[in-house]
Specification:
Blueprint lengths: L7 H89 L4
Length: about 100
């Protein structure tokens, strides 16, 4: 294909514009790939955070159960101590001449 000499400057100018557009497109495409990789990485990190958070929630629930169990035992022990003191006072009091 031969191009007439009078059209050559305009053809060169069009080719330069096309090359500039291709360069811009290639840079945008590379940037687009980078953003996709960044989003994929962020999704993986989010999944890891979600898993750790779920473990923390389960540990917290277990922690609450253990605290309630300890509190229940403490109140039972306090009740047994009170009852033991009451019985001991009732039995030992008359022997020492204290009380009725």
């Amino acid at each position: 294909m031969t191009v007439p000499a009078e059209q050559l400057p305009s053809l060169i100018e069009r080719m330069i514009r096309i090359e500039a557009k291709l360069d811009t497109h290639n840079q945008t495409g590379a940037d687009h790939e980078g953003r996709i990789r960044l989003l994929e990485s962020a999704a993986a990190q989010q999944a890891s955070i979600d898993a750790r958070l779920q473990t923390g929630v389960q540990t917290f629930a277990d922690h609450e159960t253990r605290l309630r169990s300890l509190e229940r035992r403490m109140w039972i022990t306090a009740g047994v101590a009170l009852l033991g003191g009451l019985i001991a006072g009732t039995v030992i009091g008359p022997l020492l001449g204290i009380g009725g």
